[in-house]
Amino acid sequence: MTVLDSRPDVPGDPHGRMMTPMEGPEALISEAGVSMAPVEDLGAGRGPFWLDDWLRANATDVLAWRRHIHAHPELSRHEFATTELVVTLLRTVGLKPWVLPGGTGVVCDIGSGERCVALRADMDALPLTEDTGLPYASTSEGAAHMCGHDAHTAILLGAARALAGAPELPGRVRLIFQPAEEVMPGGALDMIAAGALDGVERIYGLHVDPRLEVGSGGRRVGARTSAADLIELRLTSPGGHTSRPHLTADLVHALGTVITSLPAVLSRRVDPRSGTVLVWGAVHAGQAANAVPQDGVLRGTLRTADHEVWTSLEPLVASSVESLLAPTGVGFSLDYRRGVPPVVSDADSTALMRAGVEAALGEGAVAGTEQSSGGEDFGWYLEHVPGGFARLGVWPGPPAPQSDIHRPTFVLDERALLCGVRTLVHTALTTLA
User: Fold this and answer.
1) Separation of alpha carbons 298 and 280, rounded Å
2) Is the sign of the CA dihedral 267, 268, 271, 272 positive or negative?
């Protein structure tokens, strides 16, 4: 793969807004004539003919793009080189992408007409150190694509360039290359604020799933992922000697009360069918065994799959914490940070995506998928337009082990990249038909 000089003028904006020029290197150039081992196209021959032709000629490019992005990961809101790469590869086939004011994030339309369907990919890496031993492993210290966003970006690039070569399209397909999915409240809000959903009737996204075998796509009506909020509780006490707790406020005991009692209170105040769960991830207080500390902190995440419950959680947590701590005499401050809403795929969008998976990979490729307590900022898009979010199988199958995401050892079967391209293309075509 060779990526030529992509230094642009100020990127254009179809809505007339002024965009800032992109930052980054003058050119992103990989080794010319790089040879990629071919991978099996599991959907070969399923058409349309122009998609089969494009994948036959360009499948190794999709792999090369993914490996380049994988080797050069960028953390949230610092995806400048990745943005530059995306813009270059879109412009080389005659498309006119525009970049968000912050310099990361790309929007681009393909086709014409009033009807418009959006396809979204996220671009950011995780603050992890890779431990895969891959020849194209991360070259950036403390950053790695251990969640599959490199694959998402390469898949959408492949879908974009294939669609750009279609004889004609029944409407417009909007490409959304989003930054900052891995931070709350998420880069989806930046995309929405910049007008990425203007005129869009439905939006779709894919996420790699190492529990599904390559060649399959998981879909689910209703909640797919959960809302995820952050709780930080800071306690204060005059401190004192542990032999005289009655003369002070026992901060550690108060922390323990909240740790054990708040999850129990919520389980009795919230409908258990909502999948609401509070789990603490960090607690810090004191150093000496015989001294009551003056301050302490407790941090955790609160998740729910129910949108209505999500809107009620913050005041419920605040009142519950106040009631639990009132008898202890300990002072406190509560920082409740709303994260992302649940991803809830509507029935019509899920059906259209199922049809896209079947057209791309066959009826046997459609798999059910469990509701996850993980967070995903794709939910912000679904606050504005209906859409679907599916899982893309990346596990080679037995006897290969399953390597979970967000681990330094996560790897995926690259045949899934071509499956993803086909799935997005067919889903867009099915929706616009």
Assistant:
1) 7
2) positive
